[in-house]
Amino acid sequence: MTVKFGVLALLEAKPDKSGDLAELLQSARSLAAAEEGTVTWYAFKVDDTTYGIFDTFESPEARNAHLEGEIPAALATVGPDLLAKDPDIRLVEIVAVK
């Protein structure tokens, strides 16, 4: 397996919605697990209101399928209620993996 592509998404919760965003990310795990092309998927917390998602893929097609999938759709639906600003989503290339 050669992991070459990734997505880094940083999410800033509204101050009173941090717990709700954490719950959404926890529930999204099962959606990511069901995606054939997603090799790894991490949801993490940086501080009280900043969360992130980092996922990896073997191909740009798998990454694009993920970006058009259920997790981004869920974020788009609840984003205005939970997020203080638009997500910072960055497409990355993996340069080294252990």
Quote the average pLDDT. Answer: 95
Question: So how many helices?
Answer: 3
- Percent of residues in helices: 25-40%
Structural class based on helices, strands and sheet pairing: alpha+beta
Provide the low-confidence segments as ranges.
Answer: none
Strand content: 25-35%
The succession of helices and strands, N to C, reads EHEEHHE
For the record, the CATH class is Alpha Beta
Please tell me what the overall shape is. Answer: globular
How large, in whole angstroms, is the Cα Rg?
Answer: 13 Å
Q: Please identify, by name, the CATH architecture.
A: 2-Layer Sandwich
Taking the sheet with the most strands, its summary is: 4 strands, antiparallel
Counting DSSP E segments of at least 2 residues, the number of strands comes to: 4
Cross-sheet strand order for the largest sheet: 2-3-1-4
Q: Into how many domains do the coordinates divide?
A: 1
CATH topology: Alpha-Beta Plaits
Distance between the termini: 12 Å
Task: Give a topology summary.
Elements: E1 5-12, H1 18-34, E2 38-45, E3 50-57, H2 60-67, H3 70-82, E4 88-93
Antiparallel strand pairs: 1-3, 1-4, 2-3
Provide key terms for this protein.
alpha+beta; Alpha-Beta Plaits; four-stranded antiparallel beta sheet; 39% helix; globular
Quick summary:
By secondary structure, the protein is an alpha+beta fold. The chain is built from 3 helices and 4 strands; from the N terminus they run βαββααβ. A hairpin with a 4-residue loop joins β2 and β3 (50-57).
